[in-house]
Amino acid sequence: MAPAAPKSGDVIFASVDRVNAELFTLTYGAIVRQLITDLEEVEEVNKQLDQMGYNIGVRLVDEFLAKSSVSRCVDFRETADVIAKVGFKMFLGVTASVTNWDADGTTCSLILEDNPLVDFVELPDTCQGLHYCNILSGVVRGALEMVSMKTEVTWLRDMLRGDDVFELQVKLLKQVPEEYPYKDDE
Amino acid sequence: MIGVGKAKQYANVLDRPIGKGKQEVSLSAFAFLFSELVQYNQIQVDNIAELERRLEDAGYAVGARVLELLCHREKGNRREIRLLGILSFIHSTVWKVLFGKVADSLEKGTEHEDEYMISEKELLVNRFISIPKDMGAFNCGAFVAGIVRGVLDNAGFPAVVTAHFVPVDGQHRPRTTILIKFAEEVLQREARLG
């Protein structure tokens, strides 16, 4: 059977079950507040958010592959594009853009102008070191690791810190070759 | 600049226009997030009651903000001051905004004057949850119970709110009932208001 044609992020988002973004936003806020109360150190909160994101990414990639019918990306450029246009859209309902490629095509930035995580949010003075959206970087890292790409994901710009957009830098560290018995379909 | 249609920077979060609440994210995004909330809290505690209390606390924080947001957006900065008013506000307005539908039922407890129940056949947060046998009566609905308590408490109706599974005849999965037990002062005030 021929593989199904890849679907656009909009089409997938329109077809999946959805919930009000405010429930999502406020729940995320409750999580962050709980972490700040429990862990006290902002650095520890960043780490825990990243870990939670990683856990999500590891599981989320299955749903992503199943629903998007995206086939193997030829290079990292295509991968980044798919994350920005299909991945972000189908889960968060927003699209990112990809820019700032380095010369050898292994580092780029995902730019988010709309981000449902940060509605109603303002960082108090005591939390200036907090990467409020660190869960997202964890998700990207976790999901890419499941498709054999080791990456480093860092926030370069953050609207909660006064920048004009959210900029997430994704750096490809290495492609892990797939091992037996996980054979490619083709 | 009007109609740019992009998130813009505001010096102060209060300057930002309040959304209409029509934006959505995928249910899986929420389910993944909620599952992390539960898992994180699970390793922080050593018994079920404590886990439910922590989920309830997280929900309370959501409820407090939902009340403020919805009173402003849906009710023109007015808030319910009567018992039945606030209950129906939760059952319809809050439920509709958060879960996309009005709650399945709102009933008064038959045995106690101070008890009310909101029931939901398939509570959103329990949709992808199965409880391991060794966790007994644990119900993730504690989070929603927390939301309800957050709304009630901040509206001046202190109450104890708990979530329970109730088996339904002929259904494989139990429904979830959110049990609200109002503080004595609430009922006294209600009686005074006549």
From TrEMBL, chain A:
GO CC terms of this entry: endoplasmic reticulum; Golgi apparatus
Keywords: Endoplasmic reticulum, ER-Golgi transport, Golgi apparatus, Transport
Organism the protein comes from: Salvia divinorum
Protein name: Trafficking protein particle complex subunit
CDD domains, A to Z: TRAPPC3_bet3 (cd14942)
Any one GO biological process: vesicle-mediated transport
Subunit: Homodimer.
Function: May play a role in vesicular transport from endoplasmic reticulum to Golgi.
Cellular localisation: Endoplasmic reticulum; Golgi apparatus, cis-Golgi network
InterPro entries: Bet3 (IPR016721), NO_sig/Golgi_transp_ligand-bd (IPR024096), TRAPP_component (IPR007194)
Superkingdom of source: Eukaryota
Family: Belongs to the TRAPP small subunits family. BET3 subfamily.
From TrEMBL, chain B:
Any one of the GO BP annotations: vesicle-mediated transport
Domain of life: Eukaryota
GO cellular component: endoplasmic reticulum; Golgi apparatus
Signal sequence interval, chain numbering: none
Complexes and interactors: Part of the multisubunit TRAPP (transport protein particle) complex.
Organism of provenance: Salvia divinorum
Keyword Transport: yes
UniProt xrefs under Pfam families: TRAPP (PF04051)
PANTHER family hit by this protein: 41-2 PROTEIN ANTIGEN-RELATED (PTHR20902), TRAFFICKING PROTEIN PARTICLE COMPLEX SUBUNIT 5 (PTHR20902:SF0)
Keywords, ordered alphabetically: Endoplasmic reticulum, ER-Golgi transport, Golgi apparatus, Transport
Cross-referenced Gene3D superfamilies: Trafficking protein particle complex subunit 3 (3.30.1380.20)
Annotated family: Belongs to the TRAPP small subunits family. BET3 subfamily.
Phylogenetic lineage: Eukaryota, Viridiplantae, Streptophyta, Embryophyta, Tracheophyta
The protein's name: Trafficking protein particle complex subunit
Intracellular or extracellular location(s): Endoplasmic reticulum; Golgi apparatus, cis-Golgi network
